Amino acid sequence: MFLDALQNLWAESGFTALTWQNFVMIAIACVLFYLAIAKKFEPLLLLPIAFGVLLINLPLSGLMDPPHGTDPGGLLYYLYQGVKMGIYPSLIF
What we know:
- The structure is a single chain.
- The chain has 2 domains: 17-61; 62-93, no CATH class.
- It has 5 helices and no strands.
- The protein has helices at 2-12, 20-37, 43-56, 75-84, 87-92.
- The mean pLDDT is 88.
């Protein structure tokens, strides 16, 4: 009974969609977090990079998905639209 519940939880979670490439990138994100927090090696640069790497490699998150019909797109899709359309340079300067 308990093993069936664990197998069901595993099958319905997003972990089944992880590939070895996702595991490698998540490990790299953890190394970057360690360097930024524990070793204090450029934390203002490494923390956002590590967080972005971790977000993008979450399985089935849909952060970069474009909008489909009435469904909205992912958060990073809309943030990238500001880069693509050149909105951010005019906001900065």
